Amino acid sequence: MATVNGIIGHQTVTDKSVIDDRHPAVIRFKQFKADNGTIPAGEIVALDANGYVVSYDPASAATEATPVGVCIMDTDTSKDTIGNVVVHGTVIGKNLLTNGTASKPEETAALEANTLIWSF
Fold this sequence. Notes:
Structural class: mainly beta
CATH topology: Virus Head Decoration Protein, Chain: A
Strand content: 35-45%
């Protein structure tokens, strides 16, 4: 008798959770700057001079140096200019990003100092 070890389907889930459930998150639709690359889930975000969501840049001398929230899902700004941003609540600290790399403690501290978001 023959046996077959076939795979009918395969799925890999790579999403990471950004929201920590210790305190209910307040999420707002925000206008992202168009054609500004992909803003990844967990990215700390700020507003540019025109009020559009962009990645937080602590080295900037402009408005991008003040965090306003955390992007909760990958947002490709070449396709979507509206995205979901946590503006209040708790987030998972190890999943926070600044310019696509893991956030440093001082960047997380800036998020907490300038918003109603706390990381755990």
